[in-house]
Amino acid sequence: MYNNTPTVRFTNVEALFQEIDRVSGDFLVVTDVSPQNFTEISLEKERKGRGFRLRRYHADTGVLIIIIPTRLYEALHVKIYEAFRDQLVRGNQEDSWETIGAATFRKQGHPNGDGGEGDSTGGPTPDRAGLEDRPTLVIEAGASEPLSELRRDMYWWFSASNHQVKIILLIKFEYAGREILIEKWEEEQPTRLGATTTRQAATALKPVLRQSITIARNTATNPASYHVTGGVLVLSFRLLFLRNPGSHEGDFIISTPKLGEFAGKVCNYVRD
Questions:
Q1: pLDDT digits (tens, 9 = 90+) for 155-206
Q2: CB count, 10 Å around CB of 260?
C-alpha cells in the first residue's frame, strides 16, 4: 500500500521527531505504533509546537501516517476553505460557523482507537461546537500522498465520526501535469432499505462521489491559464449547517474562474 514511501519503525518519540526532520517530502509512514505511543506523540507534538500533522492512526495495524506540510500542500486546502469562508463573511454567517482546523479526533466511542487530523475542518455553531462534536466539513489535501490513501481517509472520517461529517473534499495535486483533482464526497442510504431504525439507517449510509473536478494547466498561454472540467464546486447549505436554508441563504458555490485562480496560486509553490 505504501510503495516508494519513506517508512520508519517507531522506537521512541524523540527518535521519531528526528526522522521527521530528515524527511525530504511531505509524507511519512510509521509502523509499530501502539495506542499509548500515539497519545505520547500527540501530546509531545503539541507541547513542542511541532508543525507536522498526524494524518491517520490505524490502531489495528499500528500504522501512523504523518504529513509534513509544505507551502504547496497547505495551499491545496487553505485556499479552497478560504473561498468558502469568504462567502460566509459576505453573507454575514461567519458567527454561525466554527473553524476547527487540524484538531486531532479519535473514533467516537473508542478513546484508545483510531485517530487523526484533517487539514481544514469546520461546522455550525453551536450545533457542532462541543468537544465531542465532529465537523460537518472536512477538507484533506494530498501532494505526495496517493489518491487511494486520501479515499481511505474519507471512509474513515464518515465512519469514525458516526456520520456526523457530511461533506468531504479530497484535493489531490499531480506533479506530472500540474493538475489538481477535487473530489466531493457525501453519504446516502442505499435504496430498498425497508423499515429500519435510526441507528440502522446511519450504519447503512454509504459514501457517494458527488463531484469530480479537474483543473489542468494550459501550457500554450503566457501567463499560464487553467481549464476547469466538472463545473463549479457546490457545497450544500443543508449538509453544512444541518438545516434548510432560510431567506437570503443558499448553497455555497465556488465558480470555475475562482477554481482557476486557486490552481494558479497553488502552482506558484511548485519547484521547476
A1: 999 998 999 999 999 999 999 888 999 999 999 987 665 555 555 555 679 9
A2: 18
Q: Which residue has the cell 457542532?
A: 128
